[in-house]
Luciferase-like domain-containing protein
Amino acid sequence: MINDNIAALCMVHVADTDQEAYDAAAREGEWFVAKAEDLYSPWQGREVPDSYRFAVDAVQTERVNKTADDHIESGAFAMGSPETVIKTIEKYREAGVDQILCFMQMGNLPHSNIMNSIRLFGKYVIPHFL
């Protein structure tokens, strides 16, 4: 079986305004990225199997010492109002991505913020792409 779909993982947080989303989730997203980088630390300075090379290279060059602002600018984080998140996801679609894996429960983000983000995503973002 061949799956011709292209998927991407994106840290997502939707709030009523860009500032509310940033204030709630930027640090939590940074925390998650740092923890993900830790998963690859055993490979630092060692011979890396070819099947892991892309991930280790990305951690060592593309993700290290990046801030939430860097991740928002690159599209790795979709954080903001529904309109802002739609614009970020549109860029994925333009690049040929047809499945977005939305990681919405990063770090110590309170449950109420996560549920509100899911509600706003379902009410405004998803319908835009239907």
About this structure: Residues 45 and 114 are 37 Å apart (CA to CA).
